[in-house]
Specification:
The complex is a heterodimer of chains A (462) and B (308).
Chain A: H1 2-14, H2 17-31, H3 34-47, H4 59-96, H5 98-103, H6 112-142, E1 153-158, H7 167-180, H8 190-205, E2 207-209, E3 213-219, E4 229-232, E5 244-251, E6 254-261, E7 266-269, E8 279-289, E9 298-300, E10 307-315, H9 316-342, H10 347-362, H11 386-410, H12 414-418, H13 425-453
Antiparallel strand pairs in A: 1-10, 2-9, 3-8, 4-7, 4-10, 5-6, 5-8
Helix pairs in contact in A: 1-2, 2-6, 3-4, 3-6, 4-6, 4-9, 4-10, 6-9, 7-8, 9-10, 9-13
Chain B: E1 4-16, E2 22-35, E3 39-43, H1 50-57, E4 65-70, H2 78-81, E5 84-87, H3 99-109, H4 114-128, H5 143-155, E6 161-165, H6 173-188, E7 192-196, H7 200-206, E8 209-214, E9 217-223, H8 224-228, H9 243-255, H10 270-283
Classes of the chains: A alpha+beta (462), B alpha/beta (308).
Chain lengths: 462, 308
């Protein structure tokens, strides 16, 4: 780490055009007060976090709140700073006319946007490191004993294979239904049939009727460890929300009866016989309501976290560091986007544009608003009106963008760390590759292309 | 005189609005040929097309029609950019950088080798008289000091063509004199210099050739002596005669049929008086917060210390 920092600093000191632009941006954000003022706001906000948890007596919930709000505050502040630095810096070049001087320098074409982006990343890193340390300090003070941060382990969360419906399962279900009901399923359009089949299988795998049992398969390639648990949050339906029910859970040879409540999480420890196993089955039988006069027809698993395996994996600190690295990568993309948008828009509109992206991405690309599977059902373009073909192409493009945007939300891991989940190194590399290099790199190349094709002379004045 | 380094033929530029409707025809067919190793002046009133022509030569804006060649290549290519030094009309440099940092940025963007960068910065700071103020932020500089740092940044990569847009803008007479000396010195070292200026007296003193633009067209072009020559007047400058000698000379000239239009006693120019006063103050050891006296051109400009 120290060697990395040393090499970075020496590269900045000795480097060429790219390093020169990076250093200029750092001088700009420091001497113009953006970094000191932004840093001040960031640290005052973190410093006020303990006021939020004074009412809470439980150390676990204090840590959870501090981590969730702290990471949220750091991410929000850094994203906004990244946006302001990028749009502000490039727009200032245009407004002052300095861009005319810059673009006639031979090294500026490939150094200007990447150098500025790199400068913003360095500036944000300089804020992120002490802010994360400050947050850790506050979390450490909120916990008893103070070393608890290194002690409690983060968990890796695994969802059962059964809840993931495969295309093969859908096809098999469709074939079966067509044989049983050729008038109904046989005459249905292929896409509609697939959608309905998937929906039914999902519903079936997510519910257990009273008296029935269902097997759920879990895979954990690294092998289970001591302390792993099966965590369940069942739903008993709206009319039975205050009722209790019983489940019989079979793990290897051990059978356990559990009393569950609607929406409340219950955990069952993995027996010793399954330690180091990397694949195992959980059999769950729904025994019905505890009270004899109540009839609950089935138990439902609503949501992706309704039934999951939680295995100790890494420490809270390492999970937090990885999560913060992903925040930094996302800030880098916002910087690249802000710089590129500023090449053709003024400061207010460019800022608004990037804010719109942030809002759209924070909504997970409006996940759930569109059924991604139905969007794939495009009829033969030869039989379609030209306008319809265009609409379909646009719909596909929109669907692609929405799917891409959902990756943004998947790499916002603050809430997961606050909930005690681990963030893996693979996730960091995935975020770096997808958001940092692919998205960020592409958008920077677009910016360089636009800037090279633009007139930077008197056009605006006239 | 060497071959043309900048060739402009039938250059047209039409500025359009958002809807691509033509709004202004800034250039209507400009023809220029700038020879290597000369100082060329581009003159004209506001809106005549001087800056548009320069910006097309630099690749900042694209021509609507016509041809432009800079050093045998189209403008705006990296190879061409590396051989051009440009001083913009306004001092637009980063106000939060010091003079030294600004030159360092300019050198790195100009691909000056690491080995040469530091000594070039020091030599140029010395040339423009900003050694003492080198570590102050440019935002704190006076307008003249900003102009000086602008001239230094235009020279740091030892360009072959130097384009100076209003180079003496904001400079005191001392600075103006120095800039004129640097320009002639650069020409002597084989550089080609293109100057756009409103200060006609300055242009007249340093330029070898000029062109006058009006309405997007070159209205007059040629060597300064040629286009300023008047075939109906002659200016005599003599040592100051006494009254009798002056009368005798006047009579003699009238006998030859010449009209004496004006006879005036000689006087110093205000520039000469200004420079004399400042020089006297310096000799007394009075210091200034602004630029110092400055010096001559550094050795690397046009010398063997070429950039790769």
């Amino acid at each position: 780490m120290a060697l990395g920092i040393f090499l970075s600093i020496s590269a900045l000191r000795r480097g060429g055009a790219l390093a020169a632009v990076t250093r200029t941006l750092l001088a700009e954000v420091w001497r113009r007060g953006i970094l000191p003022v932004g840093g001040g706001i960031l640290f005052v906000g973190i410093g006020m976090l303990p006021l939020l948890v004074t009412e809470s007596t439980d150390a676990g919930s204090r840590i959870h709140s501090l981590l969730e709000y702290g990471q949220g505050w750091i991410a929000a502040t850094l994203l906004v700073l990244s946006l302001l630095m990028s749009c502000g810096s490039y727009c200032d070049e245009v407004v002052t006319g300095r861009i005319r001087w810059l673009v006639v320098r031979p090294g500026a074409k490939w150094a200007l946007l990447p150098g500025k982006c790199l400068g913003i990343l360095v500036a944000l890193f300089l804020l992120l490191v002490p802010a994360t340390l400050f947050l850790l300090l506050l979390v450490g003070r909120a916990s008893e004993p103070p070393v608890i941060l290194w002690n409690p382990q983060a968990v890796a969360v695994v969802t059962p294979e059964t809840l993931k419906v495969t295309d093969q399962e859908v096809e098999s279900y469709l074939v079966l239904q067509m044989l049983e009901d050729p008038q109904g399923w046989g005459l249905m359009e292929a896409a509609e049939g697939q959608r309905r089949a998937r929906s039914r299988i999902e519903r079936l795998s997510r519910s257990i009727p009273v008296g029935s049992s269902h097997d759920y398969w879990f895979e954990y390639p690294s092998g289970l460890e001591q302390g792993a648990v099966i965590s369940m949050r069942p739903s008993l339906g709206r009319v039975h929300r205050s009722q209790r029910a019983r489940l019989r859970v079979q793990l290897a040879d051990a059978k356990t009866e559990v009393v569950i409540r609607n929406g409340e999480r219950s955990s069952i420890e993995i027996p010793d016989s399954l330690i180091e196993a990397n694949q195992f089955k959980v059999g769950i039988q729904f025994l019905g309501a505890v009270e004899e006069d109540v009839r609950i027809s089935s138990v439902l698993w609503n949501g992706s976290d309704a039934i999951e395996l939680r295995v100790p994996d890494g420490t809270l600190v390492s999970a937090l560091i990885r999560s913060q690295l992903l925040t930094w990568v996302r800030c880098g993309f916002i910087a690249a986007l802000g710089l590129t948008v500023s090449t053709f828009l003024g400061m207010p509109v460019a800022t608004l544009f990037v804010l719109c992206f942030l809002i759209a991405a924070a909504g997970g690309g409006f996940a759930g608003s569109f059924d991604t599977k139905t969007a794939e059902t495009v009829a033969d373009p030869r039989s379609q009106e030209p306008l319809q073909v265009v609409v379909d192409v646009l719909a596909r493009a929109g669907d692609f963008i929405i799917q891409q945007l959902s990756a943004w939300n998947q790499h916002a891991t603050g809430a997961r760390v606050a909930a005690g989940e681990n963030v893996t190194t693979a996730e960091v590399f995935s975020g770096l590759g997808l958001i940092g290099l692919l998205w960020g790199g592409t958008i920077l190349l677009v910016g360089i292309f636009i800037s090279a094709r633009q007139e930077h002379g008197l056009g605006r004045d006239r | 005189m060497t071959s043309d380094v900048i060739r402009v033929k039938g250059l047209r530029k039409v500025f359009r609005d958002f809807w691509l409707r033509a709004r202004v025809e800034a250039l209507s067919g400009v023809d220029l040929n700038i020879h290597g190793g000369e100082v060329y002046g581009l003159l004209g009133p506001n809106g005549s097309g001087k800056s548009t022509t320069i910006q097309i030569m630099l690749g900042l804006i694209f021509p609507t029609g016509g041809e432009v060649e800079v050093l045998g290549t189209p403008p705006g290519t990296p190879e061409t950019k590396n051989r051009i030094g440009y001083l913009p009309e306004d001092s637009v440099f980063y106000p939060f950088l010091s003079g030294r940092e600004m030159l360092d940025l300019s050198a790195r963007l100009g691909r000056v080798p690491d080995a040469d960068r530091q000594h070039r910065i020091e030599e140029l700071l010395q040339m423009v008289g900003l050694c003492e103020a080198a570590d102050r932020e440019i935002g704190d500089y006076s307008k003249g000091m900003q102009r000086r740092i602008g001239i230094a940044q235009a020279l740091i990569h030892d360009p072959e063509i130097i384009i100076l847009d209003e180079p003496t803008n904001g400079l005191d007479p001392l600075g103006v004199r120095q800039v004129k000396d640097w320009i002639t010195g650069l020409r002597d070292r084989g550089k080609t210099i293109l100057i756009s200026s409103h200060l006609l007296a300055d242009v007249e003193q340093v330029c070898d050739r000029v062109s006058i633009l009006y309405g997007g067209l070159v209205q007059a072009e040629g060597a300064v002596e040629e286009i300023l020559e008047r075939d109906d007047r002659t200016l005599w400058i003599t040592s100051r005669p006494d009254a009798d000698a002056l009368d005798a000379a006047s009579e003699r000239l009238k006998e030859q049929g010449l009209d004496i239009i004006s006879v005036k006693p000689g006087s110093k120019s205000l520039e000469e008086k200004f420079l004399e006063t400042v020089e006297q103050a310096r000799e007394k050891g009075i210091t200034t917060a602004g630029a110092e006296a400055g010096g001559g051109l550094p050795a690397f400009l046009g010398g063997g210390d070429k950039i790769s």
